[in-house]
Amino acid sequence: MSNEILKSIMPVAGWPESRADEPTLTGGVDPLLPTPFRIGESSTATLAAIGLAVSDAWELRTGRKQDIAVDARRATASLRSGKYMNMDNNPISTERNTVMGTYPTKDGRWAYLHCNFPNHREIALSVLGVPEDRAEVTKAVAKWNALELEEALVAAKGVGGMVRTMDEWAQHPQAAAIATLPLMEIVKIGESDPEPLPAGDRPLSGVRVLDLTRVLAGPTCARTLAEHGADVLKVTGAHLPNIGYQEYDTGHGKLSTHLDLREQSDLDTLKGLVKNADVFSQGYRPGTLGNRGLSPEELAEIRPGLVYVSLCAFSHVGPWASRRGFDTLVQTVSGITNRQGERFPGAAPGPQFYPVSAIDYLTGYLMAFGAVEALNRRVREGGSWLVRISLAQVGRWLVEHGQVPDDQLNDVPSEFTAEAIASWSAESNTPMGRLGHLAPVLQMSETQPHWARPSVPLGHNQPVWPDRP
């Protein structure tokens, strides 16, 4: 398959385009699932980029490079890995809340309500003044103009948006702001001496990662680092809402602890963990953690040499920089759901999400790639590093690759064969039961990626680091 999309990632690391020829890419080209967007080739490219960075880390340890291979079909399936889980051979439901979705509005447009989290659902229902009933929500939304509802939801600290066309989004001030940014940034933010990777027999052995992210993109980053030997400690609050099955999907390889950052003692515990960490990954809106003394610069003072990975929805620039957002919202406002609905209508009329969580998982993979590249720079030249990315930047990058021509989008299978999924899967003994799930996609010749720890319930572990090898 073509490596043109992989070439577009090379500038992030300052690599020559020729490095895109190193991985072996197989499994065909898009469309691999029913969408005009090049999700298969994009996922293959991001995983191959991780492989290149991890191979560099291995070379820094041993002097040896590794052969890298990615199958596009497996890479594409990984963009909805939650769908392929089972617990004790029983399916795990991944159904969204019944009032989450798109609705026609008074002005002949469509509006999207994000209602999977209880707090966001309560805000949407409060703005609309109706109970949790899809028929009632439909009638209420029909009384609003789409843009007015979008603004009312944002003002109430909810999540939702007006469905735009791709042309409309291209003219939006936030799209213009994002267009000034690269796909992602790896920026030196402090000085420190060069630091070798900790001892161990895997590329990221002994590397300690604090994962303060939620939902899919950020947790996928830390899960990916764990595939290569990193010790990951997920930190979340017991008071924060979560979607249980997603924690099974993104929890492979991690320890998990509860800290309430509203409490000074727990905040102090976190800062103590930072002193012995290598990577700090967070997914809050710009400036949020700075209010608690957890900004990139403040943590680089606590731990010189730290790699700080920062994710948000709409980037750190532009009028929407402080807005809440998710993959589905970025799809909605940027024209993706409009285009998907045009080409692949659903059972009911209106916009459609593409068949995977591409922006989420692609962002997570790119975050992991950036984190490993920053660690490699720390080995070579020292320094503290900021890896900065947003869902909207990744959505823009995905769309920039162009679309599969219409005449190639007929009779596209909506699912991979059961035999293929079984061959790509593994099982783990977890505290919840025996979890069936997809195995890591990336293939490496010396250090095949795997998770040394199973998924655990949130808060299962104490807030302490495991001993290094």
Please write the CATH class name of the domain at 4-93 and 179-316 and 355-444.
Alpha Beta
Radius of gyration: 21 Å
- Mind describing the biggest β-sheet? 7 strands, mixed
| Overall spatial form | globular
Give the termini distance in whole angstroms. Answer: 39 Å
Report the CATH architecture of the domain at 4-93 and 179-316 and 355-444. Answer: 3-Layer(aba) Sandwich
> DSSP strand (E) fraction?
15-25%
List the total number of helices.
18
Describe it for me?
It is globular and about 60 Å long. Strands 8-14-13-12-9-10-11 form a seven-stranded mixed sheet. The protein has 469 residues and is of the alpha/beta class. It has a domain of 318 residues: Rossmann fold (3-Layer(aba) Sandwich). The chain starts with a helix and ends in a 25-residue tail after the last strand. The model has no long low-confidence stretch (mean pLDDT 95). It has 18 helices and 17 strands. The longest helix is centred in the first third of the chain and has 24 residues. β3 and β4 form a beta hairpin.
